Amino acid sequence: MCHEAEFLATPAVRWLGVHPRDVETLGMDASPLSRTDKDKLRHLSERPYTLADARLSRQVDLQLESGVKAEIEGMARFSQCYLTDSYIPTQITGRLFI
């Protein structure tokens, strides 16, 4: 449905998942990016909505530079409730910035 992409977009979408900066900031476990991951990130960095959003563009660049990725499930190592009680509410209220 790529021909209808502009009608499927959500202009106020928020990134609630793990940000590349979280890997270092929170000391999360990370895995190396695969060649496929790197290709996807490069393609993502060229998309108009990424180019139009400096914060999103910076996060894509950070992930490429770091060469690693983390899974949101990795936050369970902090505590069983960290993700739902702390991280996601903080992301929603905007107290953490990408």
Description:
This protein has 98 residues and is mainly alpha-helical. It has one domain (22-93). The chain is built from six helices and two strands, in the order H-H-E-H-H-H-E-H. The two termini are 29 Å apart. The mean pLDDT is 82. InterPro entries: Spo11/TopoVI_A (IPR002815), Spo11/TopoVI_A_sf (IPR036078), TOPRIM_Topo6A/Spo11 (IPR034136). It comes from Timema podura. Pfam families: TOP6A-Spo11_Toprim (PF21180). This is Topoisomerase 6 subunit A/Spo11 TOPRIM domain-containing protein.
Chart the SSEs and their pairings.
Blueprint: H1 5-8, H2 20-25, E1 31-32, H3 35-45, H4 48-51, H5 54-66, E2 68-69, H6 82-93
Antiparallel strand pairs: 1-2
Helix pairs in contact: 3-5
Index terms:
single chain, 98 residues, mainly alpha, 2 strands, 4% strand, globular, TOPRIM_Topo6A/Spo11, Topoisomerase 6 subunit A/Spo11 TOPRIM domain-containing protein, Spo11/TopoVI_A_sf, Spo11/TopoVI_A
